[in-house]
Every structure is written in structure tokens, then in C-alpha cells.
């Protein structure tokens, strides 16, 4: 009786492990076509290394803070009874050599023109970035930045 139970246990274990290997192999052999989104992601978005400012995010924020002409922009902004913040959303391209091109303010219709001009100037005059890489080759990449200014009421 014990021999029969052991035999069935071994047979069951062997069958179970064999069926798992076959189902795993079958799952790997089945090739379904990629959807359009997956094809696009696989060929256009997957950078090995994203574009970045030399020195990282901290250095980029330091550059923006140091070179932003706040007082010139504030002088041209409307002062009201309460404090408010205005933000410019700027998109730009980091080319294969790291230079910046095609700087555009995406919300230019809803912000002060002085802020728009200053945000575009700030990005255009930035030092070269380290370009994105894919498969060891430099790639063009899109970047974006939000540049904000707080305006406080002026009391006499």
C-alpha cells in the first residue's frame, strides 16, 4: 500500500512539473502582434539615458533661479490686492549635440507677455545639455519646464 501511494505521488509530481514546463514553453512560443502603441513605445520612447542638464536637476534649478530676471518681470505684471502666481509652461528640444532648439511657451495666451519672453529667453540661453541616448547613439528629445513667479500686492 505504501509503495502504491509513493508511486502515485512520484507520478503526480512528475506529471505536474512536466505540464508546467510545456505550458511555459507554449506561452513563449505564442507570438501575438504588438499593438500600435507598443510598437511606438518600443521604437520611439525607450531611451537608455534621458537628456539631462550637466550637474543634474539641482544644477538646472540653480541655473534657472540665478538667471531668472524676476524684478524686470514683476515690474511689468499687474499688481492686485492679493498675491498670485503665474506660470509659463515651456517646451523645447534637446538636439543630438546637446543644444536647445524650438523653444515654445505652450500657455502664452493666458500669461503676461513679460513672463513669456523671459521664460523663452531663459531656456534659449541655457548651456548645452547632455543629449538622450538610445542603443549608444545620441537622440533628439523633447523636454518641458514650468517657470513660475509670485506677485505680491504693493502697499504704500
Provide an overview of this structure:
The protein is α+β, with helices and mostly antiparallel strands and 156 residues long. The chain has 2 domains: 2-31; 48-151, 2-Layer Sandwich (TolA/TonB C-terminal domain), CATH 3.30.2420. Helices cover 44% and strands 22% of the residues. It has 5 helices and 5 strands, in the order ααααββαβββ. It has helices at 2-29, 36-45, 56-67, 70-75, 113-124; strands at 84-94, 100-105, 132-134, 137-139, 141-151. A 3-stranded antiparallel beta sheet has the order 2-1-5. A two-stranded antiparallel sheet has the order 3-4. Strand 3 and strand 4 (137-139) form a beta hairpin. The longest helix has 28 residues, at 2-29. The relative contact order is 0.17. The model is unreliable at 14-43 (pLDDT under 50).
Provide the descriptors you would attach to this structure in a database record:
single chain; 156 residues; alpha+beta; TolA/TonB C-terminal domain; 2 domains; three-stranded antiparallel beta sheet; two-stranded antiparallel sheet; 5 helices; 44% helix; 22% strand
Amino acid at each position: 500500500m505504501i509503495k502504491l501511494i509513493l508511486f502515485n505521488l512520484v507520478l503526480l509530481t512528475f506529471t505536474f512539473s512536466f505540464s508546467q514546463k510545456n505550458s511555459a514553453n507554449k506561452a513563449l512560443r505564442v507570438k501575438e502582434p504588438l499593438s500600435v502603441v507598443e510598437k511606438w513605445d518600443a521604437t520611439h520612447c525607450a531611451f537608455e539615458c534621458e537628456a539631462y542638464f550637466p550637474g543634474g536637476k539641482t544644477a538646472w534649478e540653480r541655473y534657472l533661479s540665478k538667471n531668472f530676471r524676476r524684478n524686470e518681470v514683476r515690474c511689468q505684471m499687474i499688481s492686485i490686492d492679493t498675491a498670485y502666481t503665474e506660470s509659463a509652461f515651456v517646451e523645447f528640444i534637446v538636439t543630438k549635440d546637446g543644444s536647445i532648439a524650438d523653444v515654445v511657451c505652450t500657455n502664452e495666451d493666458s500669461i503676461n507677455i513679460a513672463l513669456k519672453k523671459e521664460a523663452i529667453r531663459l531656456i534659449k540661453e541655457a548651456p548645452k545639455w547632455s543629449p538622450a541616448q538610445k542603443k549608444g547613439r545620441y537622440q533628439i528629445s523633447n523636454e518641458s519646464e514650468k517657470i513660475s513667479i509670485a506677485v505680491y500686492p504693493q502697499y504704500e
